[in-house]
Amino acid sequence: MAAMLPAVHVMAQEASTDSNERLDSIVVSSTRAGFYTPVTYSTMDKGRLRRADLSSSVPMTLGLMPSVVSSNEGGTGLGNSKLTIRGVKGSQINVTLNGITLNDSESQEVFWVNIPALTSILSSVQVQRGLGTSANGSGAFGASINMNTAFVEADPSGRFEASAGSYGTAITTVSASTGLLKGGFYASAAVSRGRTDGYIRRADANVGSAFAVLGWLSGRNSLRLTYLMGKQKTGITWNGIGLDDYAKDRRYNSAGEYKDKYGNHRYYPGETDNYAQHHVQLNYSRAFSPRLSWTTTVNYTRGDGYDEYYKSDKKFTAYGFDPSVSETASGDFIIRKQMSNDYWVLSSDLRYHGRRLDVTGGVYGGYYMGRHFGKVLWSDVLGDSFDYSPRFPNDKDNQWYFYGGNKLDMNVFVRAEALILPWLTGYADLQYRHVGYVVSGVSDIAARLDYGKPWDFFNPRGGLTAAWGRGHRAYLSVAWGNREPGKSDIKEVLESISFGGENSELKPESMLDVEAGYGYYSKKFSVSANIYMMEYRNMLLETGRLSSSGFPVKDNVSRAYRRGVELEAGWHPAAWLSVMGNMTLSINRIPVYDDSAPVIDNTGENGWNELGYSVVYKSFKNTPILLSPSTIGMAGLSFRPWAGRTSSLGTTAFTISGKWVGKQYLDNTGDDSRMAPGRFTADFTASHEFKVKGGKIGLSAYLYNIFNKLYYADGGAWKNFVKETGEVVSGVYVYPQAPFNFMFKVYYAF
Questions:
Q1: Torsion over CA of 33, 407, 302 and 432, rounded to 10 degrees?
Q2: pTM
Q3: DSSP for 102-123?
Q4: How much of the chain, in percent, has pLDDT values that exceed 90?
Q5: Please, what are the domains in the chain?
Q6: How far apart are CA 626 and CA 675, in angstroms?
Q7: How confident is the model over 217-232, as pLDDT tens digits?
């Protein structure tokens, strides 16, 4: 590997490699870290991505990387998945695809279920821990994930993959590529379909995706049109399960549950989450010389979706009906919360590769338009014959609420790496970012949402990398970052103010990130260690509570920090044996935390009524940050018993891996009654490949949780402040993961 060469030669070699890489790949170079970038990162290549289980989403596939903890709401690999990195949650992880951010501009989350089987079309994934390099879109506040779609290959190829396993899980993917044709044209496409019943009841998922590329390469020019579609219909699982119900039936799911007029428990089958997303990217790249290249990408993303619910014993006025519409004040309803959004992006950067200097500068502009509205589909009191059409002036779609948000996101950056000495490289990365956000309308609880705010951020980064001898690398970096609140964060505050809560505006959060590391790399052995200190100001901290639409509720805390050490090692003593492992030891604390709770009274139709605002009821000192385990570790062994054989036996491989995740608190109080215990789980994989005429066939078996551990990987806590008594009532919700389960995969490729 390149790291084995003397430092000055490594840099020259990497510059040469970069300058001769395919023009269709330089689009992602502006967000990626290289060997001399003083950033803590790990990369998963195409081979490892293709060996992954098709049913595993990107968070589950990355689950063995350092400091990563992944989970799935439905308990298996398919469906709504999430991950944390160093304890950092999804809304603080910047995710890009071909340099374009995938984070939703409003919530700042990435909903991985919207793009199933994504690993089958990726050529690599780089995970940067800490602030990383300058990112497009919402800032990386602890981690970033940079993904790259597969590049054109010289020859035609095709691949068919099918997987099936536990809990009715099955997924199929078909892909094909023309290779590079005469005239420089090429095309490739992939389609995927998957389904699962889920481990949790009614966690079923039906998902599909499509991917297509049409491109042209000619001399120093590249033009590429990319289309990516994801569509999903899943049971609602974000409610989780209370610990009392978990003790009785860990597969229980309350979503859609109601009582009929005879008092029987029923489940509404239409209680689902539905969403479709379309991404179109047009990229042009030009290499003016072996050292100077330019790339520009135009992106358009369209999203449409809805959640549907059965609501029991709700007031008619809650859904915009006039009280005179019914003789009774309340009834059962089927409602739909809908959304649609449009997102336009223009990204352009210019890169110079020199023997002693590498400079990249770029601009990024994005404009997002999001719309949210609610419909009443049915009521048991009014029946099927009632006309549920307009109840408001100019209302053609039976909306009881409507609000929209527009967001402008622009940044400019310049990044440089300079060879100061034969063994020392300096790094500087400067970014200016402007964000403008406007919200207007009425929310689903009749709160007025009128908000407009611009922000301007300066995000500097700098560091040094030393490389000497054969395979030694050390680095030190200091970075400062800023990030704005998300729409869901702002909405919670505006609703609280609307109902008499404290008029406190959420502040942007800031972070100082200091990283220092050392690594040694050789053909048979590698080891690395890095220390990090992430110091937050006005941190937008998740509270453990969820909004009515399943978004985490956040609040500002003046100070918080994450400090830790990450260790990673690999040993390859022979062609038939590889051993690997990583460990993270960290302290994640809030010096002073004021816990708050929504205020309720006992006048509601279900025994209580949420009044729409919160109060602080208790303060804590030096309390742990929720869902931030202080210990994370992984150990794995890959064994190829017949390595070196020229027959198909030489491809046979067995891998066993174990993951340890320490205890995690479900809120920020450090209360052991609201805690997910530490757990150790292990998986086993076997694979074999043999050649057939015109191609190859591969077989794989994936055995998960082989020790049949019963655990929950994630969760949260709720609490309410009772106005009349001053009492705080509370509880927790958790996401149980499946016990022992399996998947089998077969593929044919040519």
A1: -20
A2: 0.91
A3: -S-TTT----GGGSTTGGGGEE
A4: 66
A5: 2-749 (2.40.170.20)
A6: 9
A7: 998 999 999 999 999 9
